[in-house]
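Lesson 9: reading folded outputs for more than one chain in a single document. The general rule is that every protein is listed as its sequence immediately followed by its structure tokens, and records are never interleaved. Here is the first one.
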Amino acid sequence: MSDTRRRVKVYTLNEDRQWDDRGTGHVSSTFVERLKGISLLVRAESDGSLLLESKISPNTAYQKQQDTLIVWSEAENYDLALSFQEKAGCDEIWEKICQVQGKDPALEITQDPIDESEEERFEEMPETSHLVELPPCELARLEEIADLVTSVLSSPIRREKLALALMSEGYIKKLLQLFQVCEDLDNREGLHHLYEIVRGVLFLNKAALFEVMFSDDCIMDVVGCLEYDPALVQPKRHREFLTKTAKFKEVIPITDSELRQKIHQTYRVQYIQDIILPTPSVFEENFLSTLTSFIFFNKVEIVSMLQEDEKFLTEVFAQLTDEATEDGKRRELVNFFKEFCAFSQTLQPQNRDAFFKTLANLGILPALEIVMGMDDLQVRAAATDIFSYLVEFSPSMVREFVMQEPQQTDDDVLLINVVIKQMICDSDPELGGAVQLMGLLRTLIDPENMLTPTNKTEKTEFLSFFYKYCMQVLTAPLLANTVDEKKSKALQEGSTKINPVCPDNFQTAQLLALILELLTFCVEHHTYHIKTYIMNKDLLRRILVLMNSKHTFLALCALRFMRRIIGQKDEYYNRYIIKGNLFEPVINTLLDNGTRYNLLNSAIIELFEFIKVEDVKSLIAHIIDNYYKALESIEYVQTFKGLKGRYEQEKDRQTLRLNRYRRDARTLDEDEEMWFHEDEDDDDGEAVEKSRPEEEFPESYGKYMETKKVKESDDKENFPKQTPTGSFKFTFSHSAGAANGANGKPAASHAASASPNGSPAKSDAPSGTLVVKTAMVGLVDYPDDEDEDEEDEEQSPRKRPRLGS
């Protein structure tokens, strides 16, 4: 059906008692063979799909609200609503429902759901008792009226009948006139009864009664009745607050009287629900569901009316961005937009999209850029709330605006940099605003929400922009509060005490923790960009300075950052860590922590456990070569012994590989002599020097033993020593030559060569041929062994001596 009379929106009530929009379509009432009855059908106006198919059940309670709403429940926790574009369409469908159920269309509700016992009692009632008989509305009968209203709340049928009685006799206005009399006479007993009556009428949960009670003529008297709670010694002053304290501020004059009335009504009803009425108990929580719906649809109507008034919004934006606007006026404008955006959350998704697109077209983001840089804390806080609505609605829209900002402007005035600076400069000791802004930044830089089909290159373009213009602003506090380890060594003088550059201020430490949390997120999600930034800025070294902080949570944040880097299992990162010797501050912290069993201890051990379990060979070799002597005493976990075991297994595998694919010099000589021998046999038939290898072996062995003794004496002189910084540097290699250069002096990155137990290597084996051959294979390194030991080649560029030559 194409006419607008039957154009509707379908809503369902979710678990949070909020209405969810299911779509827009056209409603009809037809007989459905499958359901065997007259049913309500709603077909989507976009594609004709079926949005709703609901049989009109004779026992279902349908309720008409505000002339354009029909609400009902199909199951215990499944409420539905049809919101009509026109009143005529709502009346037409309502008449059809009442016709099926045999009810009078003049009623606002067909019936209430009732249990079996209630139904049986209802069937036994005489037909004459159609309405509840109300006592005369007199001062002396207030107690009787209060008892009646209170008694019907437990019975759905009697609640319905009482509501009809109250509507038919204009009883509400008479009660409110009595309230004025009681207040003039200061009749406290009568006022207490009126409190019970009005509260009970609200709990009847009838939209028709709300329309009367919340009208301009009655609402303040309703609030007055609710001031006199019998449980209070003195009445509350709600009317005084609503009329004198709460001021309705028009940033731009609203000329539509209906809109003004709707805004006043919604504010006051919201005040009644949130402030005046007590929190409903478990048994009463459904009593005010209609009141919640009343407020919800009022807000939808207000936003729609404001959005349609283009002149109004244009004028608001013009004043907001005008430099001549006074600060006080600008504050009111920003607060208006904050409330406006909050109300917009009640809109259905497609209308909310249109709402935010309207704001974007009018220039909400440039306006926010101006007001977020103002000194007024209230304005900045309101602007942050508006920004959060925009980011939550469409991160892509915000990113697109940021990238289109003119590049000739200073980086400081870019919107994201304004947000970062506001986060850094948050004056709140608990950094509440900074936490909120950090969450917004995280949403903006999250690649998960950059996968829009309309812009395939959004992720690459925005991340390149962010790392070029914004990352240095984000990391500035971090770099300012840490110094390069090389520069700080003069301050440490071999001590492991607190680094003097670490922030002792709790608020600064909290801020650095927030920044580290964001950087840790980047490591996980921005593989290329963050890797380049870390390498260029030597960022991990700077961050690990914070391991010395007296604030354990900050040290844990620094450790978590390194753990996330190692968790990437990227050899570029691993080489960077090895080259910079970046395990040293972590191990120093572990040793300084001593025997304390705390979170810091567990987190550091977990880091090494991960390296062991994942068998990260380059890191295992680096840790064992440099730090095992300092770590081998830790025996309450098997992590470090396990690392040593992994290291030994890898060393054995390399030895086997050498045995399998390489031959020592002596074997080569044997093969050469065999070749010459065979050649000469073929030519002359004579055997020449067949026993040469055996004859020359004592001489070769003597040279080898001489070289080995020199090596052993050098090893003893170069026994591991403690470095000036208080940590140990150890190297464990399968080759004795790895620790020394060609000139016999210690290599740049190694202090000694040791056997697995930390002592210099010795050989006590008898001088048999097999033993010597095995020893030579295990200790000799050949110049073509470059592809397997790239890391050692980088640290020690000098050639290793060949023992066989």
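And here is the second record, again sequence then tokens.
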Amino acid sequence: MAVEEEGLRVFQSVKIKIGEAKNLPTYPGPNKMRDCYCTVNLDQEEVFRTKIVEKSLCPFYGEDFYCEIPRSFRHLSFYIFDRDVFRRDSIIGKVAIWKEDLQKYHNRDTWFQLQHVDADSEVQGKVHLELRLSEVITDTGVICHKLATRVLECQGLPIVNGQCDPYATVTLTGPCRSEAKKTKVKKKTNNPQFDEVFYFEVTRPCSYNKKSHFDIEDADEVDKMEIRIDLWNASNLKFGDEFLGELRLPLKFLRQSSSYEAWYFLQPRDNGNKSLKPDDLGSLRLNVVYTEDHVFPSDYYSPLRDLLLKSADVEPVSASAAHVLGEVCREKQEAAIPLVRLFLHYGKIVPFISAIANAEVRRTQDPNTIFRGNSLTSKCIDETMKLAGMHYLQVTLKPIIDEICQVHKPCEIDPVKLKDAENLETNRENLRQYVDRIFTVITKSGVSCPTVMCDIFFSLRESAAKRFQGDLDVRYTAVSSFIFLRFFAPAILSPNLFHLTPHHPDPQTSRTLTLISKTIQTLGSLSKSKSASFKESYMATFYDNFNEQKYADAVKNFLELISSSGRKDHKSIEQPILLKEGFMIKRAQGRKRFGMKNFKKRWFRLTNHEFTYQKSKGDHPLCSIPIENILAVEKLEEESFKMKNMFQVIQPERVLYIQANNCVEAKDWIDILTKVSQCNKKRLTVYHPSAYLNGHWLCCKATADNTPGCTPCTGGLPANIQLDIDGDRETERIYSLFNLYLSKLEKMEEACGSKSVYDGPEQEEYSTFVIDDPQETYKTLKQIVASVKTLEQEHAQYKRDKFKKTKYGSQEHPIGDKSFQSYIRQQSEISAHSI
């Protein structure tokens, strides 16, 4: 989800690896161990939670989390909790990283010390104030000074224990006085509109003095005064109201101006308490990759995009812009991700991969090593399978993976690791059954393999067979090296990375999946001496169960089917595909004539056939909405029910209102529901952004409940994977990579010149580049550099224009914004340098 900024879209995303914690404080009891989990928070809003690791002070999580960030934020925070069965889970400590500091730790494993957490430091949100210092002449003719404090509104206050009923206290304090006043409580909102004014008498009445509006004593007193605004959550609990944040402003700054209006970030309360030493709470290992893409309108990217898209037609392909990107990037994966997405978007992925695969096959000398390296070709095919093959994995592997994770059958076949109560033969039989079932499901799933993958496999097969005509098996191994080695085997080994399970499996299940993955990988490899390929003797013994010819024949038939020319795509798979599920809160739809329209927690389940909800997971559905009945899926304004993260599923007869757990979950559900219903013939073009309550629509005030919508529907996500990608965003990412590695581009230009002129032995510094045609490559490099420098100038101009228009203290950049202050310093330095 992008934030619009005057024609430019800003996309934020974060990819996190939560490794492990160590040296957590012992539990104050006889056991001393803890049951810990870790949460990921945008400010105070939880967006992800790991599994619970029981009975450990050094818990290993090993979990990955990726999300598109749909709103602005100040901190990315990580909290370590200790589960408590009888009471609320307790916080052990936290790691909070300022948004502007995220680049310091970009893609690096880093140990962070856990910090102490207390209620007074956990604040978020901003407040809008207007202060006015004025003279008042009394009836007797003397002058006094009064301060008017107007509390207009707040935004983004934290939700405490599922609710937020905020109010503000306004206090004028001085050396010898303290006067406090309070706003009304605003129910069920974290964006309260107060708009209340409070008056305070600042100075004592005195005779008017032309030299100064204050006598000496009063001036000293005013300089020591301050106005303090505290935000609180009105709680019904006996522990009292919860502190949400405060703001302290000295009155002396009003001596320069009698009126002042601005937005401010709320600050923690300084209560003088000393926090614990960081070493007392342990540490947490994290790897964080935060990305912020500033995307211009499509026309800006035309030269670079056109240069990239014609890569498949360039002869030789090593002289193309896409291949050059793979040469200059430090990791091939960096280049592969945006390239694959861009070519998928424009429907050119198959010719592009065919071209670079042909070039790689021509350079390969041994058929046994074909596509075994981490080349641009391998990484691009890996990324294509991940994007196009997710539903394919859901159909084939997910049911059995779920069973393995839930049943926990013992499958250890290493005699050294065998537990006392386990039987080796029983474990072998359990493992054999699992391998047999997964192997059968895979080899019978050829008709479900996505068309784009089949077209790529056909190209690989033909290219390999033509290059190594004496090897009859190379047409199979070229395909199996991807579909088994790089697709099915990794998905079995780490199902959480392929969205087959929500978390990394427990150690016993992980070991079972490792043994299955090894066996499936070997079965699919079609190597001559399979038992010898295992280092472990127990694996070689176990593999004897699968040495029959029927397994090799099944693999060949499967590979033949998925790499055949002219194969039709079986779009309508009879078996429903589970796309997403989880608990959310829904409002009654009014299906019954009488009854309250209250809110209830339900388990929602979305497949490619229907959208259902039930009381709990596994129960019979209470309501089922066919996909063809979903006319639109849109956000719902918070004012409707005073609830955040709400969206609406619009049907022909009624609307289903749903509240997600957080902003990331809400975005995910809206996106996938929109995508799966995008091709419905009766989709709406307009909708109501607010609810129909008390006889009228809150947005347009129309009284009839069947009144057509008042707001255009959002564009949504097309159902076709080729279009389910933002081409401009991917081109912007490619520009960023070229700009990052600009020095390598220049080095490559030098290498082209060296090869063209001397045509002799390569210099060592140029030997890393693949340059088949120096003149063509040089032309491409000049075009790339020109396009990159043009875009760089556009970004620089945008930053200068934004700097001129930005106002400190505005709603977008409240006072107290550390990131904006650093931005001001940075832009000031750039301006001074340019002058």
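What the second record shows: Confidence is low (pLDDT under 50) at residues 207-217, 566-574, 716-723, 831-835.
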